């Protein structure tokens, strides 16, 4: 928790007065949102754009004024967590189920800052099962189509013994693979399957990655690729 807090709180240094800030989802960016709440009480003026209903609730509780994505054409900065990050600044996201909104918001952000503890930094993506958001309608067929791609084992995500339902009313298939050699290829292939709404690969989207270490140190990596 301490390394998540370190990374999460550090990210507020990228926020400037007047910015529109995309607010990610999860237990690392939680610390960013709490810190933003403190800064707002001290006079910081920003607007947030939440990536999930959970984040919306937290942001409201912290007194962060919010904007709706549909009112915007760009966002100055988005801060979000990740399940895995590789040295090419590719991410797996969606462990918390918010991948679609997270990707939409990151995609219109001038700067995308990722906050993570050191366990998330990996040489090759894929140990963490890749979340793929699919329509409820015909999800079994979508699952079969993903299986047919080979070496992928998609499993319907459950919560309390029932299918997990995203904020967008869809299901999630967690895809077990072990290694993802070419995230840029897999991402396109998955999104071509009818019934797939979005996948959790964020290919070279991060501009900055802030990594909190268990030794209390913070490492900041800038994307120059
Ligand atoms: O993608 C996400 C939610 O959909 C999260 O950012 C990701 O799961 C990391 O979460 P945490 O910071 O709790 O480890």
UniProtKB/TrEMBL annotation:
Q: Which InterPro entries match?
A: NagB/RpiA_transferase-like (IPR037171), Ribose-5P_isomerase (IPR050262), Ribose5P_isomerase_typA_subgr (IPR020672), Ribose5P_isomerase_type_A (IPR004788)
One BP term from GO: pentose-phosphate shunt, non-oxidative branch
Keyword terms of this UniProt record: Isomerase
| Residues engaged in binding substrate | 25-28, 80-83, 93-96, 120
Q: Any idea which residues are catalytic in this one?
A: 102 (proton acceptor)
Q: Describe its assembly.
A: Homodimer.
Name of this chain's protein: Ribose-5-phosphate isomerase A
Q: Which organism is it from?
A: Gottfriedia solisilvae
């Amino acid at each position: 928790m301490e390394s998540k807090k370190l990374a999460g709180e550090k990210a507020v240094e990228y926020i400037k007065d007047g910015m529109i800030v995309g607010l990610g989802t999860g237990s690392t960016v939680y610390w960013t949102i709490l810190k933003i709440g403190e800064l707002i009480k001290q006079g910081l003026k920003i607007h947030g754009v939440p990536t999930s209903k959970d984040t919306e609730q937290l942001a409201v509780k912290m007194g962060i004024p919010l904007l709706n994505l549909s009112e915007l054409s760009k966002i100055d900065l988005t801060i979000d967590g990740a399940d895995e990050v590789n040295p090419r600044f590719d991410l797996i996201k969606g462990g918390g189920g918010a991948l679609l909104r997270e990707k939409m918001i990151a995609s219109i952000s001038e700067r995308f800052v990722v906050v993570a503890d050191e366990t998330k930094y990996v040489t090759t993506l894929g140990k963490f099962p890749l979340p793929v958001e699919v329509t409820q309608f015909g999800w079994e067929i979508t699952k079969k189509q993903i299986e047919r791609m080979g070496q992928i084992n998609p499993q319907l995500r459950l919560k309390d013994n029932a299918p997990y339902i995203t904020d967008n009313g869809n299901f999630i298939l967690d895809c077990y693979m072990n290694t993802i050699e070419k995230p840029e290829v897999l991402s396109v292939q998955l999104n071509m399957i009818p019934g797939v709404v979005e996948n959790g690969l964020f290919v070279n989207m991060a501009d900055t990655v802030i990594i909190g270490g268990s030794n209390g140190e913070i490492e900041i990596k800038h994307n120059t690729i």
